[in-house]
């Protein structure tokens, strides 16, 4: 599943799933562009780990929900590489709150990152990819976005990820046959957010997995690698669920 020398831009890649994906792609020979909203030790550390082990990586700072930031990032990518082979829209936030406590600002904050950012980056990437005759756009969805996996107290996030799934399948139709568009839907994952779960929540998530464990960032990274490689060339408009069977329980 080679991605050697492919130019890959991964949003929200300073930690968690994004960082694991960046490291795996770099290990497989890709030229990885790390992204974070602002310069941070975490983002620098991801780049450092990759380059110290012989990989190719650089950091491009910018907020994917701000059009001018997106224009700047993709302008720099095109100027430097003259192409973009893979975009992975991974940046996202989750702000659980009960329905009656929600305000418009909660919707604005979540949708700007989880949905508008996906749109802005996909549009900018597509312009480059269409010029070059090929490309892949991959989105991080969630099992919460599946029709039967919503969770109470998590309405805005669930709606945003449902929208990402609809965005993925519809955009695949519009950009075919030049660009493949797919999504990966993780289940409850062993990332930073899991560290603040109550013992009850963590136990519930593990028990409802058929594999009796949380989804690891490496599981998601491997799914992205498959879809980005030539092995995934025949796949578009699909949502690959990687949750250890959580959505079946």
Quickly name the level 1 CATH class. Answer: Alpha Beta
Mean pLDDT: 94
Number of strands: 7
Helix content: 40-55%
CATH topology assignment? Rossmann fold
- Strands of the widest sheet, in order across it, are 3-2-1-4-5-6-7
- Main pleated-sheet profile: 7 strands, parallel
So, CATH architecture? 3-Layer(aba) Sandwich
Number of helices: 7
Global shape: globular
What is the C-alpha radius of gyration, as a whole number of Å?
17 Å
Helices and strands: which structural class?
alpha/beta
Counting structural domains, the number is: 1
Run of helices and strands: EHEHEHEHEHEHHE
What fraction of the residues are assigned to beta strands by DSSP?
Answer: 15-25%
The CA-CA distance between the termini, in Å, is 31 Å
CATH level-four homologous superfamily name: NAD(P)-binding Rossmann-like Domain
- The low-confidence runs, each spanning 5 or more residues with pLDDT under 50, are none
Explained architecture:
By secondary structure, this protein is an alpha/beta fold. It contains 7 helices and 7 strands, in the order E-H-E-H-E-H-E-H-E-H-E-H-H-E. It has helices at 16-27, 41-52, 67-81, 104-132, 155-175, 199-207, 217-228; strands at residues 7-10, 31-36, 56-61, 86-89, 135-140, 179-186, 239-242. Strand 1, helix 1 (16-27) and strand 2 (31-36) form a beta-alpha-beta unit. Helix 1 crosses helix 7 and helix 3 (67-81) packs parallel to helix 4 (104-132). It is globular. The model has no long low-confidence stretch (mean pLDDT 94).
